[in-house]
Sequence to fold (150 residues):
Amino acid sequence: MAESYANFSRSLRESERPADLAAGALKDYEQQLAEAAHPLDDKAVAVHEKNLELMRRGLNNAWTQKSLDRLAALKPETYARTEISSGFLGSLERYVYQPPPRAVEAAPPVAAAPGAAAAPDGAAVLATGGPAEGASGQALAAGVANANSH
Fold:
């Protein structure tokens, strides 16, 4: 259908001109032919674009490809774009994805536990109450200090 519109439009544009027309009248005649042919071109493009919609929905065959080729000829500014290559990737098997480096986030300040005192460097130190508490308190204080040093 689209080709019928396009052929009729082309026939109007290429039709034989009357021989007895003056230069000004011939120019007006050609302008009127172009104005009559333009809606036919638009209809041809519309039908081909409908076929392009079929391609977007998954129907891809020789006829939809021909419509795409004709659209490239009828509207080259829209459908005949060339691709710009960013280079050739030799092989996907050799490509190794490397994630971007992660930013080191600052550790939030450690809240002091009940009975803890703040050390000069901001680490929490537990007050010791006895031999068992003292060992675990020292281990906790050492772990907090170690965590804050990184």
